[in-house]
Amino acid sequence: MSVIESLIPRQGLKVLVTAGANGIGLAIAQAFKEAGALVHVCDVDEAALMSLPKGITYTLGDVSNAKDIDRLFEDVKQLGGLDVVVNNAGIAGPTASVEEISEEEWTHTIDINLNGQYRIAHHSAVLLRESQGLMINLASVAGRLGFAYRTPYAASKWAVVGLTKSLACELGPDGVRVNAILPGIVRGPRIEKVIEDRAAKRGITYEAMEQENLAKISMRKMVEPTDIAAMALFLSAPGGSNISGQALSVCANVETL
Ligand code: NAD
């Protein structure tokens, strides 16, 4: 196999993407579909699920609901195995000081962003051992850095990195790889809402907040959802076969003095 060929995932991969009806998850689901994979998506947005590209199957389900996950894995059986699981579901959580954040908000963020990934890992490990497959967990650059007023989000993403490294140790001897992708600021409605909330918190305009965010990024631009999908495809291709237990940033946010 040439190096160029090693960059292409094999045809017919069986792939599950959580929260795959919009945003980054949709970009990943579409990219796998275009690469010849059988793709199943789970999401809470019924309308978006119904308008998924033809051929992508789905389950309406919430990763924080254990019964929904049971139903999801019943549906996943129709794929006839599982090669790649993309643990993408994650919410932004509250933008507030630690004194303001309620226990309910804290728990809700952790329940989706961390416990949701545990639930999917719990069900998929046996299938991934059978296929010597791959798990990709969406963390964030907030899983490497401090993030004022976004503590539950940052804490959940640091935890996702820990989950990833521990599962990579545990499943590696059976041929299963586990990696985290840490996106920087990705263009889309979610980041617009975060910028809006942080601007309100700081008493500055949306534009000023956006410029402040971009100024921290060496290339002064946001990541595209397709950039995250490209990393997911690379990890699934033969060229990614010696990458496991890694926290891979897709951003140009260089930490500098
Ligand atoms: P998004 O907010 O655009 O939401 C994507 C999808 O998640 C939606 O279809 C929504 O219906 C679904 N969803 C929400 N809660 C769910 C639940 N409990 N169960 C199932 N589906 C649910 O998200 P995004 O910006 O595409 O982010 C995807 C992942 O990437 C998340 O884990 C996020 O934390 C991470 N991330 C995003 C950015 C960014 O800038 N957008 C940066 C770093 C990390």
Quick recap of the structure?
The protein has 257 residues and is an alpha/beta fold. Helix content is 44%, strand content 14%.
Distance between the termini: 43 Å
Q: How many domains make up the coordinates?
A: 1
- CATH fold topology: Rossmann fold
**Major β-sheet annotation:** 7 strands, parallel
CATH architecture grouping: 3-Layer(aba) Sandwich
Structure overview:
- By secondary structure, this protein is of the alpha/beta class.
- The protein has one domain: 3-Layer(aba) Sandwich (Rossmann fold).
- The chain is 44% helix and 14% strand.
- The protein has eight helices and seven strands.
- The chain has helices at 23-34, 46-50, 66-76, 103-131, 151-171, 189-202, 206-215, 225-236; strands at 14-18, 38-43, 57-60, 84-87, 134-138, 177-183, 247-250.
- A seven-stranded parallel beta sheet has the order 3-2-1-4-5-6-7, with helices on both faces.
- Helix 5 links the parallel strand 5 and strand 6.
- Helix 1 (23-34) packs across helix 8, helix 3 (66-76) runs parallel beside helix 4 (103-131) and helix 4 packs parallel to helix 5 (151-171).
- The chain is globular.
- The N and C termini lie far apart (43 Å).
- The mean pLDDT is 96.
- The structure holds nicotinamide-adenine-dinucleotide.
- Nicotinamide-adenine-dinucleotide binds next to helix 1, strand 2 and helix 6.
